[in-house]
Amino acid sequence: MPEATLPSPASRPAHWVVAALYQFRPLDDPAGLRADLQRLAARLDLCGTLIVAPEGINGTVAGSRAATDELHAFLRAAGFDRLEYKESLSEERPFKRLKVRLKREIVTLGVPVQPLAQVGEYLTPAEWNALLDDPDVVVVDTRNRYEVQAGTFQGAVNPELDSFREFPAWVEAHREDLAGRRVAMFCTGGIRCEKSTSLLRTLGFDDVFHLRGGILRYLEEVPEAQSRWEGECFVFDGRVTVGHGLTPGQSEGCHSCGWPLTPQDTRHPHFERGVSCPHCFGTTTGEQKAGFRERQRQYGARG
C-alpha cells in the first residue's frame, strides 16, 4: 500500500500533537488492523510510524488535535483499553511521511518472552526517584548507545547496545553481576522495558522494576528541581531530543549517522551539516561525503 503524501499547507496544524503509544494485546487479525489503520491515518493526514504485530501495537504519530483524538478513540474502540499513551507538541512537522507496518514483534528483542504474564514491577516517577536512592539497586538503560549519548539517569549502566536485539546477550554476559541484586530498567516510553524485565523474570530474577511510561512520562511529571535525569531524551522524530516538560531540546541529528549532536558537537571541526559529525567522520569515504554534500545541496535548494 503506498505511503501517504504530505498534506496541503492549508490542512497542516499550527502545532503538531505527537502521540507515542503502545499496548501488548494478542491480535487475531493483525493484517486487517494494519489495513484499517493505514486508511484511517492517511485520511487524518497523520505522519509517523505505527507497527502492528500479533502481540499488539506500537508507534509514534503526529497530526492535528482532532486527528490524534480520532486515532485514540479508534484504538480504544478496537479493544486497546490499556493503551500506554503520551502526548507532546512540536511546532514543525516531526515526520516526513506515514508508515503503517506489519511485523513479527512490535519491539524486536528476538527471544520469546511473556510481557503480559511475567513482567517487572511498575514504578511511578516518584517511586523511581526513591529507588534510585538505594545504593544496592542496579539501574540499567535499555536503549541504544546513540540514545544514551543525549542523556540518561544519574548512575545508570549503559550496555552499549547498537540494537535492542543485543540486550539478551548483554544480560547473559552480566548475569553473575546482576544475581541477587535489585534491577531497575528504563527506556524512552516504556515498551522496551516490558520485554527486558520479562526476560529477567523468565531467567529467574525476582526483584525487577521498570519506570512506567518511561523517560517521557518522567520528564513530563517530575519538576526539574527534583529530577535525577541528566541531559536530554532522544526521540525518534524531527525534534531529535526533548527536555523537562517535553519541550524541544537543543540537539540536532546528524543526517549521516543519526547521532544526537549537542551545540558543542556542531562546533567541532569534523561537523559538516548533512555530511558528517565527530561520531561518524572517520567511518565514511570521501566519495560518500561528496554524495551527502550533493544531497544537502538539493535539500537546501528545495527549502
TrEMBL record:
GO terms for molecular function: oxidoreductase activity, acting on paired donors, with incorporation or reduction of molecular oxygen. Pfam families: Rhodanese (PF00581), UPF0176_N (PF17773). It comes from the Bacteria. Transmembrane segments: none annotated. Coiled coil: none annotated. GO terms for biological process: tRNA modification. Keywords: Oxidoreductase, tRNA processing. Gene3D superfamilies: 3.30.70.100, Rhodanese-like domain. This is tRNA uridine(34) hydroxylase. The gene is trhO.
